Amino acid sequence: MMPNISVKINGTVTSVREGVTILDACKTAGVEIPTLCYHPDLSLAGNCRMCLVEVEGWRTLAIACVTPVTPNMVVLTHSKKVRHARRTVLKLLLASHNVNCPECERNKNCELQELAEIHNITSNEYQTSPKPESIEEVSPGIMRDNSRCIMCTRCVRTCEELQSVAVIKPVGRSSSVTISTFMDRSLNDVPCTQCGQCIVRCPTGALFETSEIRPVWEAIENPDKFVVFQTAPAVRVGLAEALGLPIDRSTGQMVAAIRGLGVDRVLDTDFTADLTIIEEGHELISRLKGALVDNDKSVALPMMTSCSPGWIKFIEHKYPELLSNVSTCKSPQQMFGALAKTYLAGKEGIDPANIVSVSIMPCTAKKFEKERPEMRDSGYKDVDYVLTTRELARMIDEAGIDFEKIAEEKFDRWMGDSTGAGVIFGATGGVMEAALRTAYEIITGHEIPFDGLNVEPVRGMEGIKEAAITMPERMATGFEFLAGVTLKVAVAHGLANAKILMDKVQSGEADYHFIEIMACPGGCLGGGGQPIPTSPEIRQKRTESIYAEDAALHFRKSHANPEVQLLYAEFLKEPLGHKSHELLHTHYIKRD
Asked: What is the pLDDT of residue 26?
């Protein structure tokens, strides 16, 4: 470990670890330095020059985010020389930037705009020559407008370092350099997973979600349409934040606000998260039986989760030979959509042709998922529109709803009841924990032997987590073949970590039985449709809210959900049955 050294920042001596950057030393001292290319999740770039500082004895200004401190260094962060340099940097960026802020999705939440206000830039002597507007409208989940790009390369580093996808790069030379794809193709024509992690790290509006707010308003305002909203687990811990309030779970207010928009039913994706656990758990048990009892060499283990559409698109592109390992279960969103136009339509006595199914998701890849041709098993398009958490917040603002003061309300019936197991789908490790709570009890007849049902080994923000649970010698009837078997599981979040696990599976090094993978860092609560900005600290607060919601619920195991039990009794009949396979299961395809 490097020793502590003393540095003087704005006249105050601070003790920091030798070798840390000036930027980190300033954070330790409580001094804020503006940045644009820096992001706590990414490697250092030092290319925006907003973090310039003055170092005593240096001829030129130092780039704080990449310059290490040295013993007795004397730093000035807001001297006249520094302030003038930063203003010049900002003016040059603004001169080549499309500054039509009212039309930008990031208006009032733009780091460039905020810094221009802080530095009192109301006029610009540099000739304005913004890049031509070049909005890409082909991709289902993500749109680009390079006229707003400031070449910070956060998106490039996100795609390479966090997601191991690397479909965007700086291309061109000198002043003509832009961020683009191979051969300037659409994001729809390259192995982009539509995860949207580039969006939540972009400091401006150069990247944003493909919005469906207007057609959703049209459906709500059409008296002939029956509009059903479903809300994902992570939305309830992100919506208040998107509306400018502190990070906290706001399930009741969220339901009331959506109902206030004029929709016909407000229901819960957590309901089908519980359903997913039952179907997926039985599928895992079926595969284990095939491998351990029937000695069926065609059984693909480890089984992998299928909830994250960004992950599914990743494996379709990068590891198609492992697609048989992926669970056949649709994601909770798509299960809900299929049931909304079959089961719910029957319960409500509504013609499914008149049902408009709208998902509120923390995810831009869900917009891609709903367009997959496989997702029409109800006889209709299972999900019609997907709105991100940010889009829902904009609709609530447009409707003039005071979210902070609105009284809490409950979800509607039939597909609105859920358990804590469904809620924790929003956090990395949540699907695995929910599955273990149910699978262990089905197999053994007893609750999983963890304190308060909390399976701590699969919780936390480590990139890859592993756990093992040994089955007891006495098993429930029909599951004797699992007596004494040690089930090995793994959890990964962020596609770079998924790649590590897939390489191990591919090489035969992995001996897991079940793997959970979420495309986004932190899981769905860190999704590409969540509030901006994101950081490890923000994701941790959202995680704490997710688990608090779980702990507060009466039912915390998916198979205990009374509405799911009713669904099986009246409609599906049994897990992995004919109706389940028809509506709730699917297949995936190899992609170029």
From this structure: 98
